[in-house]
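Pasting as-is:
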Amino acid sequence: MSLEAETLRRLHRSFFPESGTPPEWFDRLAILLQENGVDVVDVVSYLRAMLLHEKGLAIENQSLREALRAPLGGWKHFGSSVTLVVPVTKSEAFLGQVLDFYDGVGVCPVLIVDEETSDEARYLLSTRGDAFIDMRGESRGDSLLSDLFARIDTDWILRLGDEELPTPALLNFVDKAVEYSSDFEWGFSRIQCRYDSTSGSLQYSQFLPYGPLAAADRQWRLIARTSSPRERRAAAPDAIILSLDWVVRSFAERIERLRAHEGQEQTAASLLPFHLHEAVPESWHMFTPLPGEQYVEFARQLYRSITQSQRSGPWNRDGSGEAS
């Protein structure tokens, strides 16, 4: 059976007769599924999982649960063999808490400021006394990576965004991976999280976690210093990046970031609309409470501080003018 948009609509209607999913959603999703070679069987399995989720019989992401159960701390190679690099953007409202998180787990990131860094974020770094590398005016792409290695002593770089947090299992994986081949580039799964202010819970999306699309959001973030071609390898399934972009940025800011990625060759055009959760009907996400209390409390405090600091401004999460 061909996965045309009409086929997808009919399959969805058979599971959810009263669904209000917009027709254009199926048009976009059909293209995505076709490009990734997803079989109808995978789609039916996913729709069944959605139905179980709606009935309170959700299937959790076991890899994420294992990622959060891993021990946090005791790493040997951060700072000596691998450097965590965090580019700073317009993140003054939450950057301090992100840096406090790394202080708490014993990892000292190297901060990067460039044209995307706001004046307020630079000022925050200055008042905190955090060291940073100024990359304004530097070239992008592979040459930027070379410039970074020229300023960093370690043989490995781990790149994370200022809206992302590593799971314990990811940090443990990195600490072991840097002991092996120096010709690798490691890819990690990234999971999108949102904060539900009504229940006070941090929730993660299970949007298409199965089949060929499971690796659609793989991030190539652990990179070795080498003059040889790098071999790409997938990290262990529990080595996961948690993205808090939906928590810390407004709808308008997320749209802006999406447009900034439109010119990147590594992102297929059909995937771009799915980088914003607003483009995906909520039922397809199968939002599930995150089991890690440390991260839940972090998001809770983050949400409160951002809401308080932006209450009098135009900042909002859903584009309506009010913080949701």
